[in-house]
């Protein structure tokens, strides 16, 4: 009976209608022909696709790691406090201004021989400006080892100073220039009222001769007509012509005498034309003395001293003024007596010297291409110095006129300035030459900082020769022509690199004593 009830319940269950939810549920769990349900298959497909995507992204990140990793590291460092940044040991470079400045080489690579983070430093644009960075390009040249000789600028004896004296006795009526004013040859300087007897006598003689010649000329004209008519003999006409020749000679001698006394040609012509005596003499500036070693001489001279004043009575030869001409100066060197052979060799071969002239305020003017004029034959007894002389062409740095027409000038080089002469002793060929500020000496090592791909790599070099103007570097493969190194600012780069490495800074590094 129990069996019959169970069978009847199954029959009722199969005969009753099935709702939609129940049908869907049964269908969901119904086995598929492959033996799996559709939901499990979809989950498997999603997992497989996600795995492929993750692998692809990881591969892409690994390939592009050098590009995005620095940017991500900088972003993380900028968001981190400086103290935590230092504690975490992350890579930070100190800028020269004390701020943290990391590498920023977008599109650049450090993959070149000799590069190391311990010996390399990148500078921001602001850091370069702060140190006034300049670059020097490696070029091969023929430097020379020079001997440094102290010297002084001096005036040229007999040429740089000109005295203006009174040509005749008289009284100074006018002083035209001011002390320090520039004058040209022939420019009026003084006016004198003449009291010289010889000048008065020569002028009177000139007037008498002129009058006598006029009389003789009239007589010659009268006798010439009478001689043609046969009224007077020709001998009388010939005598008058001889007399006129004598008067012409006397007039010429008087004119020359007045010119020698200092009268201008215009004043002499005034005597001849106006038949008046000249009582005033104008003293003019003389021609400058041209010396060896000048190319384009300036005729301007300066009134260094005025020795007279208006109303003063002067005798012939009394100094009136002193003019200076500094268009060319002498460099007077003082060498040791044992250097005589080197100096004479340089003078005979025409070797070129370099002059370093003290310009004041720590500035030095360099003049190249100078040659020795002569070496003195005597040695000073006390100092044992051997003097030699070099001609130095000068140049005007000021040439202006005031509103009233007065001119004032100024020369670049002046007597008394201190000079250092570099005389060549030994010469090399095709060597690397750098400015002194590009080479940093730290203890026994000497460095330069090569500019490569936006940063500076430290290079150890060997110095063959050094002076105040240049450093000769041995060609041992550290540097090649065309390379660029830091010039001005190399020492600051050196200090920044030592700070970056955590080492102490030697206060005497880069300095030679």
Number of helices: 11
Strand order in space, largest sheet? 15-14-20-4-13-17-16
Number of domains: 4
Percent range of helical residues: 25-40%
Model description:
The chain has 513 residues and is of the alpha+beta class. The chain has four domains: 37-80; 117-141 and 430-501, conserved putative lor/sdh protein from methanococcus maripaludis s2 fold; 146-157 and 326-427, Beta Barrel (Elongation Factor Tu (Ef-tu), domain 3), CATH 2.40.30.170; 166-320, no CATH class. Helix content is 34%, strand content 30%. It is built from eleven helices and 27 strands. The strands form seven sheets. A seven-stranded antiparallel β-sheet has the order 15-14-20-4-13-17-16, covered by helices on one side. The longest helix has 33 residues, at 197-229. The chain is elongated. The model is unreliable at 1-35 and 82-111 (pLDDT under 50).
